[in-house]
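Every protein is a chain of amino acids, and every chain bends into a shape of its own. The fold becomes a row of whole numbers, each drawn from a learned catalogue of backbone shapes. The protein below has been through that process, and both of its lines are reproduced in full.
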Amino acid sequence: MENVAPLPCGHAWPILSAPPHVRICLELISDLTGRESEVFRLLGMGKDNREISRELGVAERTTRAHVTGVMTKLGLDSRLQVGIVAASVLCWCET
């Protein structure tokens, strides 16, 4: 495990200083592509596919594919779970 993890907010934080539930997520989040990280961050902000598509300038079908990729890489079953994890990570990032 690396000592520093890049976060979707653009910061890099020491993994060991993160709460345990965030620490596990940081390891998995580091496997996301740049676009998947953006989608992850926007899901954490409560955005729906249409809003994400508009913000990223891509088709909704592309956004759905990125959401599916994020869910798969994080081992989650729904976009709601992704949103909850993302919101937790983003809240930690802002502290």
